[in-house]
Amino acid sequence: MSPDGENDKSQGTYKKLSGKKICTKEFGTCSLTCTGVVIKERQCPIGKKCCKNIKKLRSWKLPTVRGRDNDCTAAGGTCNEASSVCKEKLDIQCPDETKNCCKRDKKISKKNRCKSKGFKCVKTCKGKTKNLKGCKSGKVCCKKSKKTTCKKLGGTCTKEGTCRAKILKPTKKCKNDQICCKKEKCKDLDGNCREQSKCAQNILNPSTPCKGGKVCCERGKTCKKLNGNCREESKCSKNILTPSIPCKKGKVCCERGTTCRKLKGTCRLESKCAGKPLTPSIPCKDGKVCCERGTTCKKLEGTCRVESKCAGNILTPSIPCKNGKVCCERGTTCKKLEGTCRVESKCAGNILTPSIPCKDGKVCCERGTTCKKLEGTCRVESKCAGNILTPSIPCKNGKVCCERGTTCKKLEGTCRVESKCAGNILTPSIPCKDGKVCCERGTTCRKLKGTCRLESKCAGSILTPSIPCKDGKVCCERGTTCKKLEGTCRVESKCAGNTLTPSIPCKDGKVCCEKGTTCKKLEGTCRVESKCAGNILTPSIPCKDGKVCCERGTTCRKLKGTCRLESKCAGSILTPSIPCKDGKVCCERGTTCRKLKGTCRLESKCAGSILTPSIPCKDGKVCCERGTTCKKLNGTCRLESKCAGNTLTPSIPCKDGKVCCEKGTTCKKLEGTCRVESKCKENILTPSIPCKDDKVCCEKVKTCKALGGQCKKEAECKSEVLNPSKKCKEGMVCCLIHNCRDRGGNCKKKCDCNGKIVKVKEPCEEPQICCVAHHNHLRQLPLHFQQQAHQMMQIQRLLLQQQIQRPPTPTGPQPPTPTGPQP
Question: Exposed site from 142, 221, 497, 647, fewest CB < 10 Å?
Fold first, then answer.
């Protein structure tokens, strides 16, 4: 088929609609079935209907919209949206033609509102309780609180003693009896991470320390924090404040005054001021006075009405009502007095008198108590076993309010035949069915901690439970076994210890023998009596092979001694229970010269005091105390003429007649350079070691880059302006670089960066880096460098264009070159 045929077809369908209005998007949509109103004036092609647009369509089941004065609501229905499901449709038209009149569902009022709102009816609520209807008696509507961990609350689980910050209480507790300690950064304590040398304020101790060896430095108080303004001293009329961070440009911190607004007043003309005039420190403009704000009728919980219509007391606000009306006290309605407006004939309870009476001649009737509230049930009088209650609202159909009785189950009994009842018979208010009686639940043998056995096999005492054992067995008390008495069942001949008497005897004629103590338990060893050096012990279980239990002795090693010949023993001789071998004695370990932090030297070479160790030095040397050298005292050995600082006195003197000279501070250490005095523009420093050739120590020039800044135009600078000693060019200021954006770059991954990688004070989040594009990088260069860079880029572009325009080389056979003479 050709496309012309399709066009003819479409034209043919719309030809039928000639002379009639077409269904457009402004009015409706064309569909086969319509849930709402059909627009009959407008037609659709191919037999479809024009459905009216529903503007308020939000969800499948929309909330019902109840009209005030229409036929649908009068007939007990509601006007619902056309898209919502209607159980029973009424043949009544709503004021809005797009809506359907549906019969009101009575079950909605009895609906469990607690469940429909997404909550649960629970006996004990661990979360928040909601005042919603639907739960049974004894249960409450509960909203469970979400489980929160220590990490979600911004804390870490630590030991109780180590937490210096606030202790948090998550629903899910920490493990191993730890507590949830709040993470406190330096920023939370109003501090900044700085180097210790640059910190002028107090040093704070946050739970998460600063990185890079920096300390948390307290932020100083600015003039703004002290509720002040930086002004010139001549313009300051109030008290002068002293913040830790002073004002710039020689200004002082001037205290802020109180405005009329702060005193809860308004600036008005004196003639229009009804209240008291206030005196703020900053006066009102245009000769106006600060007038106190008055109290309106609304604030006094009243309403402005005509005096004739005012039923309650008349109130007197400072700001009177308009149009000659008076402030009338709001009255109490029947609803507030917990009553309902009814016809006097239908009122069973007391009649209440609210200040705002009921409409249509009705009276405010006290809400009565129902049978349900008195914990009763409405029954026929013949079927009522308990007491008859008298609620203010009586039961319907001639029934009486019968007290709820106690069942056999509530009295902890069971309904049984009287012949099978072993215990006492109980009398509940609601009797058992089928002629059964309420029998008390008895105690079994198991509850009395016994076992049902034959009387002949019962070793312990016989118990008497209310429910006896079956098959003629008796309830036998559970006895104690030999194992429980910490014994073992053995033949009487092999029993070395005392014999025990458990209630459950041992089998096969064995006796319960007490577990004895072995030689090992008494910390001894089984040896031949001749080899036993220590005391002989007597365990209940004797040693085998005629050996005796010998006490384990103390060796020379345990007494911190060494076995040596008596002639070589310098210290005192010790006496262990196990003596040394080969006629050696146990010699006490002495103190050497090394332990006393000394060195063995000749007496003539000993400069310090002589020590006396228990083990003397060899070769007639003495133990000489180790002295302090000049190096240890942070000094250098120099000639006295070349010593600029103080002279130190170490215990070990310097050689070659030199003295120990204190190490001085050079110009380099003070961050300065040695220059001629005429060329020094900065401050002159005074190091202990002076510069050579009559030069002075000149403070180093601090550039903008050294202070961590960049020269920018004043309009482009969004961070703090720095004051370096070497200033930027005209029209530019030194702007502090905090993050990557201040430097003119973007945080990117390393692989995506086509420009230059730059380091900043506040780095990007890993694995990103601060990338400055080539065009941004060129702007930072001088003008002549920028021009050269642009020229190079233009040359590269031309070379690329030439390569693209060059014709391709032929691949076929080449023509023969002429060999003759060329013209």
Answer: 647
